[in-house]
## 1
Amino acid sequence: MVVYCPATISDFSVLPISIPPLPSFPKTVVHHVYVRRNSPKVPTADDSRSLFLTNVPVDSTELHLRGLFTALIGAGRFESATFDDERNALHSLADATPAQLARQLVFHMNNNGGANKKRKREEDAEAERAREEAASRLPGTWTRTLRRSGSAAVVLLADEKSVEQVLKAIAKLHKSKRYPTWGEGVGDRVPALGSAWLKAHNRLSYPDRDAVQAAIDAFSTLFARKEQEAADTAKRLRGEPDEDGFVTVTRGGRNAPASRNEAEEAKRKMLEKAEKKKAELTDFYRFQLKDRQKDEQEELLKRFDQDRKKVWAMREQRSKFVPEK
């Protein structure tokens, strides 16, 4: 049965998808996903080639969205998907899953061939920290995550042209009424739901002791290293005066008092900072600058008039001079 739906709602394009029947509900239904260009509050370099999706199905995975966009515009256009209930691995590698880490490492290897050595070392160190964080987590208990109803996702495509093609393909669906089938092409690459999913959860809820012990050991090592780094940072800051010339005092005092030279240097920096701030605030507006120039001109004219009067007075005094007989 074909259900009518508008092609657009506000600035969203309505993408109808066909949900195949299930043993628990043996009927085909139409689900509507709302799509628009991605325009986050904090712009990024990839906004022009990404789409924002909302009301995605609760069983959505990256493979499901890949199959959906492949049905719309063909293979090779879809790059990745990030769901709103997942932390973006690009912003925090420490919370990335092993699969996300592997994908990012391959991406950097393929696209950063001309990067300098310093940047490569920083990326390697960041990836190493992410692997340590992943190793310190306890094993998961679910083979597949279900989304909240009405969840959103951001899909990254190959280029801006692909975004145009997706929006045009969605508009054509409302004329042809041939909606793409959800889950088509996914096959066995995604863990099954239903009873098999719950059985797997029950089995994973009792992980192997060696795996749990390995995670605990990794977490303890990571925690001790971070604690030592924090202590080293606090120790270094104890004897260093800040920009205002103050020395941070922590419990137990500082290692040693700041030397007189350091205090004088901090005071000098503080005065320079105050003078710079004062200079920046002086004549901040154009009318203030004009008023100051006008006052300077009036002061010059006033001094010139005073000097002229002095000269005339001296001349008059000279003309009245009478030498003694």
Note: The chain has eight helices and six strands.
## 2
Amino acid sequence: MKVLGFILQKEFRQIRRDTTILRIMFMLPIIQLVIFPLAMDFDVKSINISIVDNDHSTYSQKLISKIASSGYFKVVSAETSFKKSLAYIEKGQADLVMEIPAGFERNLVREGVQKIGISVDAINGTKAGIGGQYLNSIITDFNVNIDMNLRGAIAPEQQGAIDIRYTNWFNPRAEYKYNVVPAILVLLLTMIGGFVTALNIVKEKEVGTIEQINVTPIKKWEFILGKLIPFWVIGMIVFTLGLTISWLVYGIVPRGSFLTLYAFAAVYLIALLGFGLLISTYSDNQVQAMFVAFFFIMIFILMSGFFTSTDGMPGWAKVISDMTPVAHFVKTDRMIILKGSSFDDVKMEFLYLVGFAAVLNGWAIWNYRKTN
């Protein structure tokens, strides 16, 4: 343990001297947690729509007014033909075109049925999908109001209608920030654990100090542990800073136990630090280490469930997702912070992370060669 103490002194001195890395590690959570959730607003607004009204009736005007006053759509043009409206999509000035056919009001009143043409610009798949859903919801609501007006003489209980009401648990107002911020907290630790430690041992190789260390009686596990502990301490400080910013800026306070949350963060950091050190033992220079770490961390982030739910992935992708520690911590972080889950609810995820930490760090110790 005395040898380990000397290694830790050396590592902390090196970290303290590299002020640029220190500034990056502590500025990263501020930038990510303050800017990213504001920029990653999944609530799409200001959707440009071009309308072709071939009916010019009372009902068609009511539908157009309902769309314009919804707060999600901006009517950029009212044209006399579909071809003229389509030109707005081709120029990138409109996202949707809605065509109201002639006889719209007459068919609704007499037959109770009328088709409407909606054309969506699908170049931006997310905006197109959400914009189309918003428009369908507005038209559906418009249909309900028309149906109630046409059947005004019939009591609601005689119509046999089903009144559907739903509640968003753990995020009542369905605000995106409550879903994004806990996941970004995981990304903070991923960046520190994956990138910084991946450059650690290989930096010793480039400078030449690794040869001096190899001729000393330092054991391999002492060397790897000495490289891991300083960044583990920094990672836990960064995680605390991230939780503080989440509370001050967004008012997000974990509903679950802080002890459970920190236990997961501690084990997750050990796993990611071991992964970074493993990359460092295989790499010959910092450029190699950086690109290898970037390759794997991009896979971790994309397969973690941060952007899309892992439940909607194909079977093979779900297997890869289950093999990444990031996916398990993103899931448990949201459950503890938003849902208030106890340790019993997430103990299997904890065992996953413990297994990852043991395998990755054991592999890093085994692969580190003490050669003259």
Note: Strands lie at 47-53, 73-79, 96-100, 117-120.
